[in-house]
Amino acid sequence: YFFRFWINYGFPGIIGAVDGTHVAIWPPEKELEHLYINRKLYHSLNILIVSDYYGKILTVNSGHGGRTHDARVWNASTVSAHLEQQYNNGRRNYWLLGDSAYPLLPYLMTPKLGQPEGSPSARYTDAHVRASSRIEQTIGVLKGRWRCLRKERGLHYSPEFSALIVNACCVLHKAAKFYNVPEPEIYYDDLDMDERNRIWDNENRNGNDIRESIIRLYFS
Known about the structure:
Elements (H helix, E strand, L loop, with lengths): L1 H8 L4 E11 L19 E8 L5 E5 L8 H6 L2 H11 L6 E3 L10 E2 L10 H26 L13 H20 L11 H6 L9 H14 L2
């Protein structure tokens, strides 16, 4: 998997990409309702998904309401805690890719926006965006195959049971990939695209140093 990201996008050490997607649900109990109203003013779960180069889902977190920012879902996830622990234990030079809605961390690389065209930083961001398209495609295939996850369908269940349905769809997606089941037409959600434009302003100093090192070594 490392080599596929490197061969196709010129990006070293990438183990996968992370992104969030919204799954519409039936309005929950009144006292909890505000936690599930997203920026487009409908009720949803904000689902964190990590996939590899081939679209295999590596982990999913479906326990947060649509109001929750992608970065906060990330900070509360087991994959975040695991990668931080691995980094503190001395494992280096491997990363997930995340868009600007995520924090820049030593093990999570984000794009560097607003850079001069043709500069090393711009080439880095271009490679980042192209490589990150793998997770966007994975989510599109997931929703293309399981139409209950689309906004216009919605899950008419409690948030807790809806989260279990999302998890089950992800497991079945993984099985479909394993058995080479033909993929459906890719489905993209407009809110997911809007979320990618939201900028997270928490840049870790070590993460920034590592990003600059990657730019200097591979994109100069």
